Input
Amino acid sequence: MKIKALIAATLLLTGFSAHAEKLSVAATAVPHAEILEHIKPKLAEQGVELDVKVFTDYVQPNIQVNEGRLDANFFQHKPYLDEFNEGRGTDLASVVGVHIEPFGAYSRKVESLDELPQGATVAIPNDVTNGGRALLLLHKEGVITLDDGDNILATPRNVTENPKNLKFYELEAATLPRVLGQVELALINTNYALDADLNPTEDALAIEGSDSPYVNILVARPDNKDSAAMKKLADALTSDDVRKFIEKQYEGAVVPAF
Output
């Protein structure tokens, strides 16, 4: 009888494994991949096998999801997704909003924005939405003036007043922490700041408020965004457990948006 019971249990486990739904999800390392790794065991209990693929850029995750090489990604906000879809002719879709990463301004050469010298060098992301986000923060802080203080796609060409004659350099977002010592100021996405051991709530000279519209979202394709497995993933990402994990793990550097 014991042998029969063991065989039955083995068949049950084998059957579960064979029917487990698999989801491959692209993510940047911090905090996205960390959050996904946190919920992986609970998703496994629900029959979803989560495979987290870590990326260091903002382009390939969308390309690979669009081409069907990956099922979803978790790294971007809606303005970036909208601009990517328009520019690349893709039709990627938001599944659910998860958290906000307040965008910050950092420096190793000055201790406040007021101390920025004439002709200071300022590094900002080179993608349109995050570059605009950086300029909007500087506009809000009174460092520069834009022709439209609500234009999320602003570029340095939209700067109408620049009292300190700041010199803007547009660089790939992932490289900004590495050039922090070479410029007077760098505007850095929080996921890359955290990855570089910068604490946004302590190290940033200026940081977005909690009213930021840049909610980070889970993204999939029209053909799979409503699948049962994707729904389980979305529910897990917006659970009370994840809310508590974010609040404890990131201490205000990442804010739940649900």
In short: Confidence is low (pLDDT under 50) at residues 4-17. The first strand starts at residue 21 and ends at 28.
